[in-house]
Design brief:
The protein is an alpha/beta fold. It folds into three domains: 5-138, 2-Layer Sandwich (GMP Synthetase, Chain A, domain 3), CATH 3.30.300; 145-271, Beta-Lactamase (2-Layer Sandwich); 276-560, Rossmann fold (3-Layer(aba) Sandwich). The strands form four sheets. A seven-stranded mixed β-sheet has the order 12-11-13-14-10-15-18, with helices on both faces. A six-stranded antiparallel β-sheet has the order 6-5-4-9-8-7. Strands 1-2-3 form a three-stranded mixed β-sheet, sandwiched between helices. A hairpin with a 2-residue loop joins strand 7 and strand 8 (248-259). Helix 10 crosses helix 11 (215-226), helix 18 packs antiparallel against helix 21 (512-519) and helix 21 packs antiparallel against helix 22 (524-533). The radius of gyration is 26 Å and the shape is globular. It starts with a helix and ends with a helix. The model has no long low-confidence stretch (mean pLDDT 89).
């Protein structure tokens, strides 16, 4: 039971953390992404979780409790069932000399606090906790995965209990969901063990291992859930299933690959949290965001998102489609695979066995009276040719290509056999992107003290592109005025210093100058140079804006690419 939006607004606007118009915009984003406004205030760097908590607690004249580092004991958890704790936004976190300590996200939840006080004979001391702090504390209701897996292994060895396999699969899936993992890798090793690794914020980390003798039954269980052939162990198989337990519900995409040590399993977690991502949250700066909005508003032409595998291209397309789906238009997609279902959008799954390819599907789509078409990826000359023709005949076409930067897509399309004048006439905008990890907002510290002392930045100071970036995004400021940040490591970010990921973009509008160069089959270097002259910020320097704004680290950016 959270505090009302009006109450939070009154507190944070009065304190000067944020002004009223910006709060209203942030509140709309919180509603769209189903996020607490308090959590978004922290993630968007308006304040820290601790400062916000202390501010709200002071308003209600009660102490603040940072629950992120609390280790809740089972006997305390049992006093307040999980369903009640989540519904009321409260947890009993400590037993003191006179009674118990209760943390709540809404100090105005008087009736509930009164009930708990009565149940403990008036021995409750009330604290305020932020919604994020409470969410971290509530994870204690789930058993520790390391201990739980060890218990399941022991149960299987001693009792040969097949139900242990079912519980183990559930545990692996729920741990992935709770910790924001995008993928689970289940990998049989040559030493008689199976490693389970989770990809969190783009990084793979091993979490647990189990004996190889349990592996065949675990794979069998996953195949049953995914409706795959259980008698086939020497061929690749792909499937999917929906996992549901209590309030948890998410889709899982499964890939099984036979390797020398057994069957390797990779499960992609397709959660509601990712499905609801909004375009404003991806990392586009305001200038590029307006460019993308302008391209989306056109009734025809192509919007292309480019980047390597794992750069978040599909997420960007889904964010665009979700905006367009609010309009009274017909949207049809063809994808491989369909990762998320979107209301009011007709989605087609590529199926080679039934001859539903990108090219064949696209031919059928144009006969379905679409206003907007989304093609998961342009892979070959036939798909490219049909896509270009569709974009030139009154359809807005969205798609992705594999390319290192925005300008390179034009030679790529020439190689696919599309005439330069057709490419120039059909492409409205190209969005190139990468992903970097975000600094954890809950343990964020200024380091080093001054940005001007960093050798890599000092070497860029005289670069014209750097000067243009400073002029555009940090007007009136010099490098000595800016700071760099990193995460010191905390329980929330698993002591990595990073939490979540952020897009680094390069947005190229195809204006008349670019069209002329494309028609002449100019090099990608010439096209890129002209785009920069016309206002495009190169990807590296867009990333540097995020670094100097405290959203990511210089190490992350330098690991992505280097300045030219």
């Amino acid at each position: 039971m959270p505090l009302t939006k009006e109450k939070i607004k009154d507190i944070v606007v009065t304190s000067g953390i944020i002004n009223s118009p910006d709060f209203d915009k942030l509140s709309d984003r919180a509603f769209k992404s189903k996020t607490d406004i308090e959590t978004l205030l922290v993630k968007e760097n308006f304040t820290t979780d601790e400062k916000l908590g202390m501010l709200i607690a002071d308003k209600f004249d009660i102490p603040f409790k940072d629950l992120r580092e609390e280790n809740l004991q089972n006997d305390l958890l049992e006093m307040l069932p999980e369903v009640v704790a989540r519904a009321q936004g409260a947890v009993i976190f400590n037993k003191n000399e006179t009674g118990y300590d209760l943390a709540v996200t809404n100090p105005e939840n008087y009736e509930f606090i009164k009930q708990i006080d009565k149940a403990t004979d008036g021995k409750i001391t009330t604290y305020y906790a932020t919604p994020f702090g409470l969410a971290e504390a509530l994870k204690a209701y789930k058993n520790n995965i390391f201990k739980n897996v060890a218990d399941l292994i022991e149960d299987y060895k001693v009792n040969n209990n097949d139900n242990s396999i079912v519980v183990l699969v559930n545990q692996l899936l729920e741990y992935a969901y709770d910790n924001g993992a995008s993928d689970i890798h289940v990998e049989p090793l040559s030493d008689g063990m199976v490693a389970v690794r989770y990809r969190i914020d783009g990084i793979l980390n091993e979490v647990v291992r189990y004996p190889i003798e349990m592996h065949n039954k675990l794979v069998f269980r996953i195949k049953i859930m995914s409706h795959l052939r259980t008698d086939e162990q020497d061929a690749t198989q792909d499937g999917r299933f929906e996992y549901q337990k209590e309030k948890i519900s998410f889709d899982v995409r499964v890939s099984i690959l036979p390797v020398t040590t057994g069957e390797n399993v990779v499960m992609r977690i397709l959660s509601e949290r990712t499905r609801k991502i909004v375009l404003e949250d991806l990392g586009l700066n305001q200038v590029d965001f307006l460019r993308v909005q302008k391209a989306m508003a056109k009734p025809y032409g192509m919007v292309l998102v480019v980047g390597p595998t794992g750069a978040g291209k599909t997420t960007t397309l889904y964010a665009v489609v979700q905006i367009l789906a609010r309009l009274p238009i017909n949207i049809v997609t063809i994808e491989d695979p369909v990762e998320y279902s979107i209301d009011r959008v007709q989605q087609i799954q590529v199926n080679a066995k039934k001859n539903i390819t990108f090219a064949n599907g696209l031919k059928s789509i144009v006969r379905q009276d679409p206003d907007v078409i989304m093609v998961g990826e342009i892979r070959d000359n036939e798909t490219a040719s049909i896509a270009v023709n569709a974009a030139m005949t009154g359809h807005l076409l969205l798609s992705t290509l594999h390319s290192n930067d925005a300008a390179t897509i034009f030679p790529r399309m020439f190689e696919m056999g599309v005439e330069p004048f057709l490419v120039a006439s059909s492409v409205n905008i190209v969005i190139a992107q990468r992903l970097v990890r975000k600094v954890c907002p809950y343990c964020k510290v200024n380091y080093p003290p001054h940005a001007e002392k960093v050798e890599e930045l000092m070497a860029l100071e005289e670069n014209p592109k750097f000067k243009e970036m400073m002029k555009r995004y940090f007007k009136g400021q010099e490098l000595k005025d800016l700071k760099l940040y990193k995460g010191s490591g905390c329980k929330v970010c698993k002591h990595t210093g990073y939490l979540g990921r952020l897009g680094i973009f390069e947005v190229m509008e195809v204006d008349d100058d670019i069209k002329n160069l494309v028609t002449q089959k100019s090099s990608s270097a010439a096209i890129e140079a002209k785009a920069e002259m016309n206002g495009m910020t190169p990807m590296f320097y867009n990333g540097l804006v995020h670094v100097l704004s405290g959203l990511t680290t210089l190490d992350e950016l330098l690991g992505m690419s280097n300045p030219e």
